[in-house]
UniProtKB/TrEMBL annotation, chain A:
It is found in: Cytoplasm; Mitochondrion outer membrane. Catalytic subunit of the queuine tRNA-ribosyltransferase (TGT) that catalyzes the base-exchange of a guanine (G) residue with queuine (Q) at position 34 (anticodon wobble position) in tRNAs with GU(N) anticodons (tRNA-Asp, -Asn, -His and -Tyr), resulting in the hypermodified nucleoside queuosine (7-(((4,5-cis-dihydroxy-2-cyclopenten-1-yl)amino)methyl)-7-deazaguanosine). Catalysis occurs through a double-displacement mechanism. The nucleophile active site attacks the C1' of nucleotide 34 to detach the guanine base from the RNA, forming a covalent enzyme-RNA intermediate. Heterodimer of a catalytic subunit QTRT1 and an accessory subunit QTRT2. GO terms for molecular function: metal ion binding; tRNA-guanosine(34) queuine transglycosylase activity. It is an enzyme of class 2 (transferase). Zn(2+) binds at residues 318, 320, 323, 348. The active site is at residues 106, 280. Belongs to the queuine tRNA-ribosyltransferase family. Its main location: cytoplasm. It is a peripheral membrane protein. This is Queuine tRNA-ribosyltransferase catalytic subunit 1. It comes from Myripristis murdjan.
TrEMBL record, chain B:
HAMAP family: QTRT2 (MF_03043). One of its GO terms (cellular component) is mitochondrial outer membrane. It is found in: Cytoplasm; Mitochondrion outer membrane. This is Queuine tRNA-ribosyltransferase accessory subunit 2. One of its GO terms (molecular function) is metal ion binding. Belongs to the queuine tRNA-ribosyltransferase family. QTRT2 subfamily. It is a peripheral membrane protein. Its main location: cytoplasm. The keyword Mitochondrion applies. Keywords: Cytoplasm, Membrane, Metal-binding, Mitochondrion, Mitochondrion outer membrane, tRNA processing, Zinc. Residues 14-409 form the tRNA-guanine(15) transglycosylase-like domain. It holds the Pfam family TGT.
Length: 403, 419
């Protein structure tokens, strides 16, 4: 399943090959085939998040039937429970959860900072107290890669020094430089470069100069792909898109660009236009469990009273198993009784995200992505006055005018 | 509905097929057998996709008014019956009154009403409302309204007698309305036999109910926890003696394998399948062995497994048995399964056992993941249905004694591993 020999080791086949299938002549969008060890992934791609070795309530068969080619596992959670040794015994995370397609694991860095109290970042790594047994743990670049090597994911993320996008000042610069140093340590620590791809994560907060330095440095390293990190954390959207487009301007064309933590439909479409290929977000699956169904015109809160007697499916045009069989009214009723209601909406939301990306890709391949964007926005917003300002600006920056 | 019996053991178990089920009369259900337990039309945790990874599902789906009554207005607006509302295709719908898993708070029954508890609280049903519900749900088969609140251990004789009288009165009223209701033509009605733990009342209820033009009989107020197993069997045997041989007997509220075996011997044909759900909810997997096919090779193998810590099974008046683990299951939260890479049950063909291991289930349970419920429900249902299959086979081959020995003597964890 692997592609061309990797540079520097001609006898080793590279575990990642990017084939650019089409490029939008108007925007910076691309449609690619990303060849990974378990299967080829068509990009642009949305990757559902299966934090603890499962996609909340969905079997791997269901996920596969929806056409998912790659999903996420979480190093922090799985590193805690059940732990890397057990997963290794189970033939890696693929063997443990019986997932046939690709897996991407994050480094655990984000959870360190967002979930765990009193974590302390030093040059060594991130020190924190385990929530399960109170023991002090150090997550270093080496440790993170070691766990990810045990998990056996097709794409691993470097451990980065994560700083919230709302933080300013010297901490941002410190974190950016440290992330570069940690990238080098991660590269050195990777035991399986012929099977597992290590992606770098561009940091620098909302500071264009810092981002540029980071881009300059990291692109000198021989990694198969780059992620744009430190965004989608509560910063202003106006700042967000500018950092995204700055990053893609300075990332190599022939390597995939992964924008972390982005999953809202509008964000996906705009960031594809800005040159991103891969996305992940817990939002679609998390919001499903609260009864929120994603649709081309926004979302539907199926638990609300107004749907009690609504006998249409969530989306009459949707081909997912939920919409083919069930109505909003039935799901509304079922939410009062059984967990299966959540699973129905989860299936639908994943289908929505994957179908959206497939449509995006198809439109790029057929040379009509700009038209697709306009139609998409028209459907999503009742009137052009309601188009988010940042999206209008971002699209304008890549030659798309919305009427 | 027509019961064709192929075997009847003197004063006891019957083997056969219940035919002519559903509006078209095309469906059938083998007996002894179980119905498919659902909540609001959904097998707990399962979407239709995951449900249909199971083969040999019962042709009859059980709905309960406990989970449906609160949606009466919605169903009346929908106008097309519950089957269509729930997206159920090609299954026979049986509508019972109470959900066997959630016991009702006592003290709300009157001469004219019974109550069910939905997500929004108590819903009081008169026969008129009960029948209006049946008309809008449009099941293929339903039980008539009944007063079964005799399970508390100190129920007075007077109270038991009332439950029998009321239930008969409700039945008569239900039948009257039934015959006047266009939408219920061709739909089967079961009478409900009550009588608490008093033999004379049980016999009286059975005799009287049998006089009415019903398609079969529900045996109520005998649920697990309401009385001693021995007393239950005695009462069931006395009841079935009074019931016509050619009509099916459905026992409510009993699901444990040992109880099922004993009740089948006393003349019960049908059970509800809520037991796999209860096992699932406590994070356990059914694993009791019911395979009695002779295999000389296996007879030689030693069982090296440690005995699981099986819970004591309680009886006598304790109705809430949610957490009572039985000897028919293993507790997957137990540390010993952390690195056990075998399937839940070797040789089980369910989706869970074909794809996953005990260690994975253990992880899902420890991390409180929703998938645990899905996978366990699939396995527990498959195992339970296979048990009924083995039961029917044993009756056909006259090997019930062997089956009983196997199921009752062996505790989970002592199963000999197959080659």
């Amino acid at each position: 399943e692997s592609g061309l020999p990797s540079p520097g080791s001609p006898w080793l086949l590279s575990p990642l090959t990017l084939r650019i299938v089409a490029e939008c002549p108007v925007t910076k969008a691309r449609a690619c085939d990303l060849v990974l060890p378990h299967c080829t992934v068509n990009t642009p791609v949305f990757m559902p998040v299966g934090t603890q070795g499962t996609l909340k309530g969905i079997t791997v068969d269901q996920l596969e039937s929806l056409g998912c080619q790659i999903c996420l596992g979480n190093t922090y959670h799985l590193g805690m429970r059940p732990g890397p040794e057990l997963i290794e015994k189970a033939n890696g995370l693929h063997g443990f959860m019986k997932w046939k397609n690709n897996l991407l694991t994050d480094s655990g860095g984000f959870q360190m900072v967002s979930l765990v109290e009193l974590s302390e970042v030093t040059e060594e790594g991130v020190k924190f107290k385990s929530p399960y047994d109170g023991k002090e743990i150090l997550l270093s670049p080496e440790k993170s890669i070691s766990i990810q090597n045990s998990l056996g994911s097709d794409i691993m993320m470097q451990l980065d020094d994560v700083v919230s996008s709302t933080v300013t000042g010297p901490r941002v610069e410190e974190a950016m430089h440290r992330s570069i140093r940690w990238l080098d340590r991660c590269i050195a620590a990777n035991k399986n470069p012929d099977k597992q791809n290590l992606f770098a994560i561009i940091q620098g907060g909302l500071n264009a100069e810092l981002r540029k330095i980071c881009l300059e440095e990291m692109t000198q390293r021989d990694v198969p792909g780059f992620a744009i990190g430190g965004l989608s954390g509560g910063e202003e959207k106006d700042d967000f898109w500018r950092m995204v487009t700055l990053s893609t301007d300075h990332l190599p064309r022939e390597k995939p660009r992964y924008l972390m933590g982005v999953g809202y439909a509008v964000d996906l479409v705009v960031c594809v236009a800005l040159g991103c290929d891969m996305f992940d977000c817990v939002f679609p699956t998390r919001t499903a469990r609260f009864g929120s169904a994603l649709v081309p015109w926004g979302s539907l809160q199926v638990k609300q009273k107004q749907y009690a007697k609504d006998f249409q499916p969530i989306d009459p045009d949707c081909q997912c198993p939920t919409c083919k069989r069930h109505s909003r009214a039935y799901l509304h009723a079922l939410f009062k009784t059984d967990t299966a209601a959540m699973h129905h909406v989860t299936v639908h939301n994943i289908a929505y995200q994957l179908t959206l990306m497939r449509s995006v890709r198809q439109s790029i391949v057929e040379g009509r992505f700009p038209e697709f964007i306009r139609t998409f926005m028209k459907r999503m917003f009742p009137s052009s006055e309601q188009y988010p300002g940042w999206a209008v600006d971002a699209l304008a920056s890549v030659n798309i005018t919305l009427d | 509905m027509k019961l064709e019996l192929s075997r009847v053991v003197q004063g006891g178990c019957r083997l056969g097929v219940l035919k002519g089920l559903g509006r078209s009369g095309q469906h059938s259900l083998e007996v002894p057998g179980c119905l498919l337990y659902t909540r609001c039309g959904t097998v707990p945790h399962l979407t239709q996709d995951t449900l249909h990874t199971l083969t040999n599902l019962p042709s009859v789906t059980q709905l309960t008014l406990s989970t449906i009554a609160e949606h009466q207005e919605v169903l009346e607006d929908f106008k097309d019956g519950f089957r269509k509302f729930a997206g159920l295709h090609d299954t026979v719908l049986y509508c019972s009154l109470h959900d066997p898993v959630t016991p009702c708070p006592a003290g709300h029954i009157t001469n004219k009403t019974v109550s069910v508890w939905g997500s929004g609280g108590r819903i009081e049903l008169t026969v008129a409302k009960f029948m209006a519900l049946q008309r809008t749900v449009r099941p293929d088969w339903y039980q008539s309204m009944a007063d079964g609140e005799t399970w508390q251990s100190n129920t007075s004789r007077k109270r038991v007698r009332k439950s029998v009288d009321r239930t008969l009165a409700h039945l008569d009223e239900c039948l009257l309305v039934h015959h006047k209701t266009q939408e219920l033509q061709g739909v089967a009605v079961f009478g409900v036999v009550e009588g608490g733990d008093i033999l004379e009342e049980r016999v009286r209820s059975a005799k009287e109910t049998a006089k009415r033009p019903v398609a079969g009989f529900c045996l109520d107020g005998l649920q697990t926890g309401s009385m001693d197993q021995a007393l239950r069997i005695q009462l069931i045997a006395a009841v079935t003696k009074e019931l016509p041989e050619g009509k099916p007997r459905l026992l409510q509220g009993v699901g444990r394998p040992d109880e099922v075996l004993a009740c089948v011997e006393a003349g019960v044909d049908l059970f509800e399948s809520f037991f796999p759900f209860q096992v699932t909810e406590r994070g356990c997997a059914l694993c009791f062995n019911f395979d009695i096919t002779p295999d000389p090779e296996r007879a030689v193998l030693e069982a090296d497994e440690e005995r699981d810590t099986a819970g004591e099974t309680h009886e006598n008046g304790e109705l809430n048995l949610d957490d009572q683990m039985t000897s028919f299951e293993i507790n997957l939260k137990d540390k010993r399964y952390q690195d056990d890479f075998r399937p839940l049950v070797e040789g089980c063909g369910c989706y869970c056992c074909r794809n996953h291991q005990r260690a994975y289930l253990h992880h899902l349970l420890v991390t409180n993941e929703l998938l645990a419920g899905v996978l366990l429900m699939l396995h527990n249902t498959a195992h339970y249905l296979a048990f009924f299959g083995a039961l029917r086979e044993a009756l056909a081959q006259d090997t019930l004694d062997l089956l009983k020995k196997k199921v009752l003597k062996e505790k989970c964890g002592q199963t000999k591993s197959k080659e």
